[in-house]
Fold:
Amino acid sequence: MEDYLYGMMNFIKAHEIMYESDIIQRTDKLLDNIYHLQSILENYTDFLGTHLINNGQIWKEMGWLVDQSILDATKQRLMDICINLQDELYEEMSKHGYTEKVMDCNISGLELVVVATKLTGQPLTIEQFTFWRSLVILYGQWTCQEMQSLGYTNNTGSSRLALRLLQLLNNMTRILTAFNSLISIFLPSNQSFDLQPLNTLASSLVDVTFNVISFIDQRSLKQNQVSIRRSNVMRNTFLPILYLEQSLITFADAVVAIYNLTGSNTQSYNKRIKWLHGLVDDTA
Structure:
């Protein structure tokens, strides 16, 4: 009885959410709009789960009246969000250029599309995949340029430099992970999709991984030679490097995945990827 009542409460709440989200408040700030949509989709995930995909079959088996029209409307609303977001991102980049805030919109936007697609169970079109592939390449190029501008390959730098590298690595990992999800789960099985344009990006990210490893090694060596005031966390340069090391493993895992998806067969990079496989496996 308790499970039945709990299920009924979720059923009612799920329908309330679907009806209430028919009107979504928007602002003139795209990133804020994406965050708002993400919070809405979190509620969808909590209370709808797989009910949209199976058309409320579990609810029907419980003997509850299922409004198929609201389920269909909710699916369409989520699919429209994915389509409209592409136009909004393109407009944002055209208007403001490739600023960090615009890049944050790209990351969060792709993560939003992944969640929306999981809820509907509907694969994206090849045109949509092409858009997100181009966006991932753009973001990767921007990240590599940002890292190069730091000059981290030529010096051991400061804790602030390590934290900036950490931020860039984490964000690149997020967008690679989201794109890998789209490719591995939602690409229609009866359609082919060209991943060759990702080859150059994949190779560049492999280079980035090894450059960061070299940076960490240099900082660790310097760390052993310098006395640190441990009373001040931000002046303890060991902590940023520790976080950077942990982030690098996740980043390397995402890079290996995207490199393998491209089907690259460059001997020099294959050796590096094999080494990165070992790095990831050893820390698993």
Q: What stands out?
A: Residues 68-96 form the longest helix (29 residues). The two ends are 42 Å apart (CA to CA). Residues 124-284 form one domain. Residues 226-237 have pLDDT under 50 and may be disordered.
